[in-house]
Specification:
A hairpin with a 4-residue loop joins strand 4 (about 325) and strand 5 (about 330-335). By secondary structure, this protein is mainly alpha-helical. Helix 2 (about 30-55) crosses helix 10 (about 215-240). It has helices at about 5-20, 30-55, 60-85, 90-105, 110-120, 140-145, 145-155, 160-170, 185-210, 215-240, 255-260, 270-275, 280-285, 295-300, 315, 335-344, and strands at about 135-140, 265, 310, 325, 330-335. The protein has a three-stranded mixed beta sheet. The longest helix has 27 residues, at about 30-55. Helices cover about 65% and strands about 5% of the residues.
Length: about 350
């Protein structure tokens, strides 16, 4: 279902946004429950993997890295909610937990929070692409590129490079450097380097306990890779699907872009738990102050929210072939569309 940016669509989206506003209040009990049922198992699994690697039982690590990676994704969602100020009633508590979780997610909290806010403010606006999103060209922009430019874009949009290689590289290496975060360099240097120093201390202490740094890396690197692959895929399908919405600044509307340009990823219950309800992304973009543990409640209480932007697991696989926004057809298309246009 494609939500076009028309006055009627904008009015309908605003009405739904008013419904969502009623679910903004955090619940301390739910929040603390999530920290307990996610953080504690994650730390136990990490300790088990490090101990196994240190005692010559490294074969255990790949088996435990999968559930540990899933829990790390869920911890990232908690950190994400803290960045929106939605996880706990207290802003101070949100920031404290968000910064603490940076040591596990490898994501500098303050820099990421500000860049992510820009993403929410500009989603679906063709004139404000480039901050916190997957780079997307229009068909006309792609046709105007040189052969080298087209090759670069094709390589960037290759899912094996973008998600398979790019996601782990982003979390483990690129986020260790204060470049490309869309923030003043002094702010970026302070936030990123403070986390890097804290991570160095944490890894050092774990290395002392494990008898060397290698068991720590053998345990944590696969876990981060699993979490990065899951997180990278989720971030991709949240906005990169055929019936998403993009508009120029003259017609762009925040609520229409939030509702029509963010997917409703329908996942099995166990995967929805591990991903912290982030598949209900259209609800989240309509009101980012709704905590993840109330997104399902909000969607269930409004009939239309369950029908917009639906993607099943099978549907989402077709998103891998999409790469360009067709301004005429108003949908995301693959490179085959360009071949058709050039042949015509």
């Amino acid at each position: 279902m494609n939500t076009e940016t028309t006055p009627a669509a904008a009015i309908a989206a605003r009405d739904i946004a008013r419904h969502c506003a009623a679910y903004r209040e955090p619940d301390m009990r739910s929040a603390l429950g999530q920290i307990a049922n996610t953080g504690l198992p994650y730390l136990v699994l990490c300790a088990a993997m490090i101990a196994a690697a240190a005692t010559g039982h490294g074969w255990v690590v790949p088996l435990l890295a999968v559930p540990a990676g899933g829990l790390l994704v869920r911890l990232f969602i908690i950190q994400h909610d803290c960045g929106h100020g939605s996880f706990l009633p207290s802003r101070t508590a949100n920031d404290a937990i968000g910064r603490a979780l940076s040591l596990l997610t490898l994501t500098p909290y303050d820099s990421w929070k500000r860049a992510h806010a820009l993403h929410h403010a500009s989603t679906g606006d063709l004139s404000r692409r480039g901050t916190g999103d997957v780079a997307t060209l229009t068909v006309r922009e792609y046709l105007a590129l040189s052969r080298l430019g087209r090759l670069r874009y094709r390589l960037y949009r290759n899912p094996f490079l973008l998600i398979g290689l790019g996601s782990p590289l982003n979390f483990m290496l690129l986020q260790r450097m204060p470049f490309g975060v869309g923030l003043p360099w002094r702010t970026a240097w302070r936030d990123v380097l403070a986390l890097d120093a804290a991570l160095a201390v944490l890894v050092g202490l774990l290395a002392v306990a494990a008898g060397g740094v290698m068991p720590v890396l053998v345990a944590l690197v696969p876990t981060v890779c699993v979490a990065a692959w899951i997180g990278g895929w989720l971030f991709y399908v949240q906005h990169q699907y055929e019936d998403t919405v993009w508009d120029g600044p003259e017609t762009w509307d925040f609520h229409t872009a939030a509702l029509g340009g963010s997917s409703h990823y329908v996942l099995p219950a166990v995967l929805q738990w591990f991903t912290g309800n982030v598949g209900l992304h259209h609800v989240h973009h309509l009101n980012s102050r709704i905590p993840n543990y109330r997104l399902q409640e909000c969607m269930d209480d409004h009939a239309m929210l369950g029908q917009v932007g639906r993607l099943t697991l099978r549907d989402s696989l077709r998103c891998l072939g999409l790469a360009l926004w067709d301004e005429d057809a108003r949908r995301l298309v693959g490179f085959s569309r360009v071949r058709t246009l050039e042949a015509a």
